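Attaching the record inline, Q. Sequence:
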Amino acid sequence: MASVQTKDYIVQLIKEEILSGVMKPGEELAQEALAERLGVSRMPIREALQNLVQEGFAVRLPNRHIQAVVLSAQQIHDVFHVIAAMAAENMILVAKKEQMLRRKNVEQTSQTEFEEDGQSKLFLEQEIEKTPSEQLFQILSGMENALRPEKKAEWEMVYQERLISLFENPYLSQLQGKTMDGYVAYAIEKMGDKQQKLEQLRRITEGIAENNEQKIRMGLREYYLSYADAFVERWEKKAEETEK
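Structure, as predicted:
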C-alpha cells in the first residue's frame, strides 16, 4: 500500500514539474537520480515512470532511457483544441437529453391535477427531474458567489465533473475524464480570470438549454483555447525568468 501511495506521489510531483514549466524539453527522467533526490527506492520510481509514459507525460527511447514530454506552444494549442472538440460532441448529446427531459417534465405537469390537500403537488415535485442545464446553472451560482479565486476554481471543477456524469455513458465519461486529468485540471486550478471563465461557462450552459450546437461549439472553443493561451504565456514567462 505504501508503495502505491509513493508511486502516485511521484507521478503527481513529476506531472506538476512538467505542467508548471520547471522541466525542459528532452529532460531525462533517470531512475537513479530521482530515487536519490526523493529518498525512495527505485521500485516506485519505475512504476511512476511507467504510468507517466502511459499517460503521455514521458516517452521511452530506443535506448530505454525515459524523457519528460514538454509540449511546444503549438502542441499545447492542439491538445486544448482536440479536448474542446471532444467536449462539444459530448455536450451536444447532453443538450439532446435536456430537450427530452423537458418534454417529459411538461407531459407530467399537464397530466397532474392539483388538489386542495396538496397531495398531487407533492407527487409532481418528486417526479419532476432537474434538467442538465438547471443542474449546471446551480453550480455556476456557487462559483459566482465564491469569494476567493481558488474557491471559484473548485466550483469550476465541480461543473466539469457534473457535466461528465450527465453523459450517462461510462465509456464516454471515462474518455472525457482522462482529458481532465492533466493539462485541463492544472489550468483550472492555476490559471485564468475566473470571472471570465464563469461567463464562458454560462454561455456554454445556455447553449445546452437552447439545444444550440453552434453556441456550444463556439463557447467551448473560446473556453479551452483561452486556457491554452494562458498555458503558453506562463511557460514563456517561466523560460524568461530561467534565462535571467
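The longest strand covers residues 58-60. The radius of gyration is 22 Å.

More tomorrow.
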